Amino acid sequence: MRQKFFVLILSALICNGIIYFYFNVGLLFMVLLTIILLIGLANSIQHKHAILRNFPVLGYFRYLFEMIAPEIQQYFIERSTDGKPFSRNERSLVYQRAKNIDSTTPFGTQLNLKEHHYEGIKHSIFPAVVNEELPRITIGGKDCLQPYSASLLNISAMSFGSLSENAIMALNKGALKGNFYHNTGEGGLTEFHQQGGDVT
Q1: To 5 degrees, how large is the angle CA 85–CA 86–CA 90?
Q2: Where in the chain are the domains?
Q3: Which are the contacts of 78, defined by CB distance < 8 A and separation ≥ 6?
Q4: 138 φ, ψ to 5°?
Q5: Which of 37, 61, 106, 144 has the most crowded Cβ, counting Cβ within 10 A?
Q6: Can you give the pLDDT of all 200 residues of the chain as single tens digits?
Q7: E strands, 128-173, where?
């Protein structure tokens, strides 16, 4: 490859010299070719880097791509769910919460739900045995004066402003029937939240 480099660069210099001699143009290009030739000569006689010795000028591109390889991997190849120890999605979630920005992402998950280590709730294709009592957890440790039992599944925060009064009443009565909590949301407590009984 060294021989091809010198043949090409010298041929280009000779052609450029002829053009400059007859037409008085191309001086800057000739200076540039001379600099490249000197770099190639210096690299061809050094013994420290084999790549630069065999590829006197093109070898620099190898080091350039090696230097920016992590950025190429991060911005063009790596998916938002890849990356160790934390993925881009996990980092974005931390940044958003640290800046008090809404961290909710719509349109479902980007994770592979079929992986064996995926944690989530999936529909069963076979009928399941219905528990007589739904699982609950006690809130409050041994030093808590008023511990209370909470259901693992509850109604999340949906304000009255985003739902109708009938929807609120239906949710509240369902919470009473299932003996779990009904979060009123940022809209606060209304009379429709109390149709089923006590609201927490």
Answers
A1: 165
A2: 2-57, 136-194
A3: 88
A4: -90, 125
A5: 37
A6: 788 888 888 899 899 888 888 888 888 988 999 999 999 899 888 888 898 988 988 899 999 998 998 888 878 888 887 877 888 888 888 988 899 888 877 777 777 777 787 777 777 777 777 777 778 899 898 899 999 888 888 888 887 777 888 888 888 888 888 888 888 887 778 787 777 655 44
A7: 136-139, 148-151
Eight-class DSSP state of 28: H
Measured distance CA(104)–CA(93) in Å, rounded: 9
Q: Judge contact between 26 and 16, C-beta under 8 A.
A: yes
Does residue 36 contact residue 9 with C-beta atoms inside 8 Å? yes
Query: Coil, helix or strand for 4?
Result: helix
**Whole-number Å distance between alpha carbons of 73 and 79:** 9
Between β-strands 136-139 and 148-151, what pairing exists: parallel, antiparallel or unpaired? antiparallel
Q: What is the 3-state secondary structure (H, E, C) of 46-107?
A: CCCCHHHHHCCCCHHHHHHHHHHHHHHHHHHHCCCCCCCCCCHHHHHHHHHHHCCCCCCCCC
Q: Alpha-carbon torsion 172, 174, 180, 185, what sign?
A: negative
